[in-house]
Design brief:
Elements lengths: L7 H7 L11 E5 L25 H14 L3 E5 L9 H8 L5 E6 L2 H6 L2 H9 L3 E5 L5 H8 L3 H14 L11 E5 L10 H16 L5 E4 L6 H9 L3 H10 L14 E4 L5 E2 L2 H5 L41
Parallel strand pairs: 1-2, 1-7, 2-3, 3-4, 4-5, 5-6
Antiparallel strand pairs: 7-8
Helix pairs in contact: 3-5
Length: about 325
């Protein structure tokens, strides 16, 4: 018998909670859905056949928005942001406008490009690289991301280490992110980081700064896989069962604005995938005339259970 779970907004009400925006500190920029991989867990359904990509006009609008608002953190994601030819232009223009720039990389896109200019720009701007590395098991990684991805990811990490990333005293942070390869919740973050640190160092001499574990969000290609495999309802029920009201205080959507590749505002990248516009209002970045979004209501749906299960997304 299929278990029916309450909608996320009802669960918030049951716990006497309201999800409102705090002061916005992070500007997340989705550079496009074009990617060199078609990962099974991708909530955006990104891949090599996607044509959506942020053009230079929208990039300039994003830069102007940052000049006006001066958010502390600029968080660059995709798809594979490295596949946008204007990535260096964006980073160079954002470098003096924010305290921190983050680049979310699947590692292989960065490695395959072998772009000395991009590596130089990343280093000069001290861009934090947040890299996907789902498992220390080559079979598990390749089953989630594609054949040969594990070995290329190792080579990419070695390349980044050679450029100083992940090494003490360089100021070049290299962080790893692990997502489960199936319909279950992630392992303990502390235990995962220790295991990654020990094994990567011992086998390949690889070092990094931090490792994070996150649950897969039931959207896009991962949602399709859950349905095909008969795991969709059970996975949602598992997320609901592990709902942790303590995560609400520091959810990333409370201090983040996400800009889609075509310039529309969302509360987070997951809502972007779900076509849930920021505060349920469709607004283009060219129409924004304020930097204050405090106390605005955050749009929610049942995929939000992934961000509030266990330790949550913070």
């Amino acid at each position: 018998m299929t278990e029916t779970i309450p909608c996320f907004s009802q669960t918030l009400e049951q716990h006497d909670l309201v999800l409102l925006r705090k002061q916005t500190e992070t500007l997340q920029i989705n550079m496009g859905l074009l990617c060199n991989q078609a990962c099974k867990h991708c909530h955006l359904d990104a891949g090599p056949n996607r044509t959506e990509i942020m053009d230079i006009k929208t990039i300039d609008q994003v830069i102007d928005f940052q000049k006006q608002c001066r958010f502390k953190v600029v968080d660059i994601t995709g798809g594979a942001p490295e596949m946008n030819p204007n990535l260096c232009y964006l980073i160079e223009n954002m470098s003096d406008l924010s305290d921190t720039i983050m680049l979310r990389s699947n590692l292989v896109a960065l490695y395959d490009l072998k772009d000395d200019r991009l590596l130089s720009v990343l280093k000069n701007s001290k861009v934090i690289i947040v890299s996907s590395f789902p498992s220390l098991n080559p079979v598990q990684t390749d089953s989630q991301r594609g054949k040969g991805i594990f070995e290329k990811s190792i080579q990419a990490l070695l390349l980044l280490n050679q450029h100083g990333y992940g090494k003490t005293g360089t100021g070049l942070d290299l962080n790893l992110v692990s997502n489960p390869t199936g319909a279950y919740l992630p392992s303990s973050q502390k235990a995962t980081e220790k295991r990654y640190r020990d094994i990567l160092k011992k086998k390949w001499g690889i070092v990094f700064n931090h490792a994070y574990t996150f649950a897969n969000v039931p959207l896009g290609r991962f949602k399709d896989w859950l349905r095909r495999s008969g795991n969709h309802d059970a996975y949602l029920a598992q997320l609901h069962k592990n709902f942790n009201p303590c995560t609400i205080t520091d959810l990333m959507c409370r201090n983040l604005i996400s800009i889609s590749w075509d310039g529309f505002l969302f509360d987070c990248d997951f809502n972007l995938a779900a076509d849930l516009y920021m505060g349920n209002k469709k607004l283009h970045i060219s129409q924004v005339n304020s930097c204050s979004f405090e106390n605005d209501v955050i749009a929610v749906d049942n995929h939000c259970y992934a961000c509030t299960a266990g330790s949550g997304f913070t």
